[in-house]
Amino acid sequence: MANSFSKIPAAFYQNPNVVEVARNLIGKYLFTRLDGLVTGGYIVETEAYNGPIDRASHAYGNKRTPRTETMFMPGGVAYIYLCYGIHEMLNIVVSVEDEPLAVLIRAIDPAIGLDVMQSRRNMAVIKPNITMGPGSVAKALGISRKINAISLQSDTLWLEDRGLTFTDDQIAVVPRIGVDYAKEDALLPYRFYVKGNPYVSRPVKGK
DNA sequence: GTGTGGATCGTCT
DNA sequence: GACGATCCACACT
Protein backbone atom coordinates (compact mmCIF):
# COMPACT_ATOMS: atom_id res chain seq x y z
CA MET A 1 0.00 0.00 0.00
CA ALA A 2 2.94 2.35 -0.42
CA ASN A 3 1.97 5.70 -1.83
CA SER A 4 3.60 9.06 -2.32
CA PHE A 5 1.39 10.89 0.16
CA SER A 6 2.22 11.44 3.81
CA LYS A 7 0.20 11.93 6.96
CA ILE A 8 -0.94 15.42 7.82
CA PRO A 9 1.43 16.69 10.55
CA ALA A 10 0.34 17.38 14.12
CA ALA A 11 0.80 21.13 13.62
CA PHE A 12 -2.23 21.17 11.30
CA TYR A 13 -4.49 20.05 14.15
CA GLN A 14 -2.94 22.25 16.83
CA ASN A 15 -4.36 25.41 15.28
CA PRO A 16 -6.52 27.09 17.99
CA ASN A 17 -9.04 28.24 15.36
CA VAL A 18 -11.33 25.20 15.23
CA VAL A 19 -13.62 26.74 12.62
CA GLU A 20 -10.68 27.26 10.30
CA VAL A 21 -9.57 23.67 10.81
CA ALA A 22 -13.09 22.42 10.04
CA ARG A 23 -12.99 24.34 6.77
CA ASN A 24 -9.48 23.12 5.93
CA LEU A 25 -10.42 19.49 6.56
CA ILE A 26 -12.75 19.56 3.55
CA GLY A 27 -11.00 17.65 0.76
CA LYS A 28 -8.52 15.90 3.05
CA TYR A 29 -8.36 12.10 2.84
CA LEU A 30 -9.31 10.03 5.88
CA PHE A 31 -8.18 6.42 6.22
CA THR A 32 -8.42 3.50 8.61
CA ARG A 33 -6.43 0.29 8.56
CA LEU A 34 -8.04 -2.47 10.60
CA ASP A 35 -7.05 -6.15 10.36
CA GLY A 36 -5.00 -5.18 7.32
CA LEU A 37 -8.00 -3.71 5.53
CA VAL A 38 -7.62 -0.12 4.36
CA THR A 39 -10.71 2.02 3.80
CA GLY A 40 -11.05 5.74 3.23
CA GLY A 41 -12.02 8.70 1.12
CA TYR A 42 -11.99 12.46 1.19
CA ILE A 43 -13.95 14.53 3.66
CA VAL A 44 -16.91 16.41 2.21
CA GLU A 45 -18.74 17.56 5.36
CA THR A 46 -17.59 18.75 8.81
CA GLU A 47 -18.85 20.63 11.84
CA ALA A 48 -16.79 22.66 14.32
CA TYR A 49 -17.42 22.39 18.08
CA ASN A 50 -15.97 25.39 19.80
CA GLY A 51 -15.25 24.02 23.27
CA PRO A 52 -16.10 25.81 26.52
CA ILE A 53 -18.08 28.68 24.96
CA ASP A 54 -20.24 26.51 22.66
CA ARG A 55 -23.47 25.18 24.16
CA ALA A 56 -23.57 22.45 21.51
CA SER A 57 -20.19 21.08 22.59
CA HIS A 58 -19.77 18.23 25.03
CA ALA A 59 -17.10 20.37 26.66
CA TYR A 60 -19.35 23.41 27.16
CA GLY A 61 -18.32 25.25 30.32
CA ASN A 62 -15.12 23.19 30.39
CA LYS A 63 -17.15 20.19 31.53
CA ARG A 64 -14.68 17.38 32.15
CA THR A 65 -16.01 13.87 32.52
CA PRO A 66 -14.57 10.45 31.71
CA ARG A 67 -16.21 10.72 28.31
CA THR A 68 -15.08 14.24 27.38
CA GLU A 69 -11.53 13.78 28.70
CA THR A 70 -10.32 12.98 25.18
CA MET A 71 -11.32 16.45 23.98
CA PHE A 72 -8.83 17.99 26.41
CA MET A 73 -5.91 16.15 24.83
CA PRO A 74 -3.52 17.96 22.46
CA GLY A 75 -4.84 18.32 18.89
CA GLY A 76 -4.28 15.42 16.52
CA VAL A 77 -6.16 12.58 18.19
CA ALA A 78 -9.58 11.06 17.54
CA TYR A 79 -12.53 11.60 19.91
CA ILE A 80 -15.03 8.79 19.37
CA TYR A 81 -18.23 8.36 21.35
CA LEU A 82 -21.64 6.72 21.18
CA CYS A 83 -24.75 8.71 20.32
CA TYR A 84 -28.42 7.67 20.60
CA GLY A 85 -27.23 4.32 21.94
CA ILE A 86 -26.53 3.14 18.42
CA HIS A 87 -24.14 5.29 16.44
CA GLU A 88 -20.42 5.86 16.92
CA MET A 89 -19.15 9.30 15.91
CA LEU A 90 -15.70 10.39 14.82
CA ASN A 91 -14.30 13.76 15.83
CA ILE A 92 -10.87 15.25 15.26
CA VAL A 93 -9.48 16.92 18.39
CA VAL A 94 -8.06 20.36 17.63
CA SER A 95 -5.82 22.96 19.34
CA VAL A 96 -3.56 22.34 22.33
CA GLU A 97 -3.87 20.41 25.58
CA ASP A 98 -6.70 21.63 27.86
CA GLU A 99 -8.42 23.44 24.97
CA PRO A 100 -11.35 21.10 24.24
CA LEU A 101 -12.04 21.88 20.58
CA ALA A 102 -13.12 19.30 18.01
CA VAL A 103 -14.40 18.80 14.48
CA LEU A 104 -17.12 16.25 13.74
CA ILE A 105 -16.61 14.34 10.48
CA ARG A 106 -20.09 14.07 8.98
CA ALA A 107 -19.48 12.62 5.52
CA ILE A 108 -16.75 11.41 3.16
CA ASP A 109 -16.60 10.65 -0.56
CA PRO A 110 -15.45 7.01 -0.50
CA ALA A 111 -12.39 6.11 -2.55
CA ILE A 112 -10.54 3.11 -1.11
CA GLY A 113 -11.96 -0.21 0.07
CA LEU A 114 -15.51 0.18 -1.24
CA ASP A 115 -16.14 -3.55 -0.90
CA VAL A 116 -15.06 -3.56 2.74
CA MET A 117 -17.23 -0.57 3.55
CA GLN A 118 -20.17 -2.15 1.79
CA SER A 119 -19.76 -5.29 3.85
CA ARG A 120 -19.46 -3.38 7.14
CA ARG A 121 -22.64 -1.51 6.31
CA ASN A 122 -24.47 -4.71 5.30
CA MET A 123 -25.47 -3.15 2.01
CA ALA A 124 -26.49 -5.31 -0.95
CA VAL A 125 -25.84 -2.45 -3.34
CA ILE A 126 -23.56 0.56 -2.89
CA LYS A 127 -25.54 3.77 -2.52
CA PRO A 128 -24.45 7.28 -1.44
CA ASN A 129 -25.64 6.68 2.10
CA ILE A 130 -22.70 4.28 2.57
CA THR A 131 -20.74 7.22 4.05
CA MET A 132 -23.45 9.89 4.38
CA GLY A 133 -23.85 11.12 7.98
CA PRO A 134 -21.49 10.73 10.94
CA GLY A 135 -22.84 7.38 12.14
CA SER A 136 -22.46 5.94 8.65
CA VAL A 137 -18.90 7.21 8.22
CA ALA A 138 -17.79 5.54 11.44
CA LYS A 139 -19.49 2.27 10.62
CA ALA A 140 -18.16 2.11 7.05
CA LEU A 141 -14.61 2.79 8.24
CA GLY A 142 -14.88 0.34 11.14
CA ILE A 143 -14.38 3.11 13.71
CA SER A 144 -15.50 2.39 17.27
CA ARG A 145 -14.86 3.56 20.80
CA LYS A 146 -12.15 0.92 21.04
CA ILE A 147 -9.87 3.36 19.25
CA ASN A 148 -11.01 6.49 21.09
CA ALA A 149 -8.08 8.87 21.72
CA ILE A 150 -5.90 7.19 19.10
CA SER A 151 -3.25 9.39 17.47
CA LEU A 152 -3.79 10.52 13.89
CA GLN A 153 -0.11 9.76 13.32
CA SER A 154 -0.90 6.07 13.90
CA ASP A 155 -1.18 3.43 11.19
CA THR A 156 -4.76 2.65 12.28
CA LEU A 157 -6.42 6.03 11.71
CA TRP A 158 -4.85 8.94 9.86
CA LEU A 159 -5.40 11.77 7.35
CA GLU A 160 -3.52 12.70 4.20
CA ASP A 161 -3.37 15.79 2.01
CA ARG A 162 -3.54 14.54 -1.57
CA GLY A 163 -3.66 18.00 -3.08
CA LEU A 164 -7.43 18.11 -3.51
CA THR A 165 -8.71 21.62 -2.79
CA PHE A 166 -12.00 23.46 -3.00
CA THR A 167 -12.50 27.19 -3.35
CA ASP A 168 -14.73 29.08 -0.94
CA ASP A 169 -17.33 29.24 -3.72
CA GLN A 170 -17.53 25.46 -3.77
CA ILE A 171 -18.10 25.16 -0.03
CA ALA A 172 -21.36 25.90 1.77
CA VAL A 173 -21.17 27.40 5.28
CA VAL A 174 -24.35 26.84 7.29
CA PRO A 175 -25.63 26.13 10.84
CA ARG A 176 -25.05 22.72 12.41
CA ILE A 177 -27.51 19.84 12.52
CA GLY A 178 -29.33 18.42 15.52
CA VAL A 179 -28.18 21.00 18.04
CA ASP A 180 -31.35 23.06 18.55
CA TYR A 181 -30.95 22.68 22.31
CA ALA A 182 -27.86 24.93 22.03
CA LYS A 183 -30.10 28.00 21.65
CA GLU A 184 -28.32 30.89 19.91
CA ASP A 185 -25.21 28.77 19.41
CA ALA A 186 -27.26 26.49 17.15
CA LEU A 187 -27.31 29.31 14.60
CA LEU A 188 -23.53 29.64 14.31
CA PRO A 189 -22.18 28.94 10.79
CA TYR A 190 -19.96 26.07 11.91
CA ARG A 191 -20.95 23.46 9.33
CA PHE A 192 -19.02 23.11 6.08
CA TYR A 193 -19.75 20.95 3.06
CA VAL A 194 -18.90 20.55 -0.62
CA LYS A 195 -21.78 21.96 -2.66
CA GLY A 196 -23.41 19.37 -4.89
CA ASN A 197 -21.48 16.40 -3.51
CA PRO A 198 -23.81 13.37 -3.38
CA TYR A 199 -22.48 12.17 -0.02
CA VAL A 200 -23.40 15.31 1.92
CA SER A 201 -26.13 14.65 4.48
CA ARG A 202 -29.06 17.04 4.40
CA PRO A 203 -27.71 19.72 2.07
CA VAL A 204 -29.36 23.10 2.60
CA LYS A 205 -31.74 24.08 -0.17
CA GLY A 206 -30.14 26.56 -2.53
CA LYS A 207 -26.64 26.01 -1.16
C1' DG B 1 -40.15 13.56 -2.40
C1' DT B 2 -41.63 14.28 2.49
C1' DG B 3 -42.90 12.80 7.13
C1' DT B 4 -43.12 9.76 11.00
C1' DG B 5 -41.66 6.63 14.43
C1' DG B 6 -38.76 2.89 16.22
C1' DA B 7 -34.29 1.17 17.55
C1' DT B 8 -31.17 1.10 21.76
C1' DC B 9 -27.72 2.32 25.65
C1' DG B 10 -23.96 5.08 27.71
C1' DT B 11 -23.67 9.12 30.28
C1' DC B 12 -24.82 12.41 33.56
C1' DT B 13 -28.46 14.34 36.89
C1' DG C 1 -34.67 8.46 34.86
C1' DA C 2 -34.16 11.36 30.80
C1' DC C 3 -32.13 12.18 26.63
C1' DG C 4 -28.85 12.53 22.82
C1' DA C 5 -23.59 16.10 17.49
C1' DT C 6 -28.53 9.56 14.21
C1' DC C 7 -30.19 6.23 10.72
C1' DC C 8 -33.48 3.49 8.44
C1' DA C 9 -37.84 1.65 6.93
C1' DC C 10 -42.10 2.47 5.55
C1' DA C 11 -46.29 5.16 4.67
C1' DC C 12 -48.20 8.50 2.15
C1' DT C 13 -48.53 12.34 -1.45
Description:
By secondary structure, the protein is of the alpha+beta class. The chain has a single domain, classed as Methylpurine-DNA glycosylase (MPG) (3-methyladenine DNA Glycosylase, Chain A, Roll). The chain is built from 4 helices and 8 strands. It has helices at 10-13, 18-24, 114-120, 134-141, and strands at residues 29-34, 37-49, 78-83, 87-94, 101-112, 157-160, 171-174, 191-194. Strands 1, 2, 3, 4, 5, 6, 7 and 8 form an 8-stranded antiparallel β-sheet that branches. The longest helix has 8 residues, at 134-141. The protein is globular and about 45 Å long. The protein starts with 9 loop residues before the first helix and ends in a 13-residue tail after the last strand. The mean pLDDT is 95. It binds a DNA duplex (13 and 13 nucleotides) through strand 3, strand 4 and helix 4.
Summarize the structure.
The chain has 207 residues and is α+β, with helices and mostly antiparallel strands. 13% of the residues lie in helices and 28% in strands.
What is this structure's SSE topology?
Layout: H1 10-13, H2 18-24, E1 29-34, E2 37-49, E3 78-83, E4 87-94, E5 101-112, H3 114-120, H4 134-141, E6 157-160, E7 171-174, E8 191-194
Antiparallel strand pairs: 1-2, 1-6, 2-5, 2-8, 3-4, 4-5, 7-8
This protein binds a DNA duplex (13 and 13 nucleotides) through strand 3, strand 4 and helix 4.
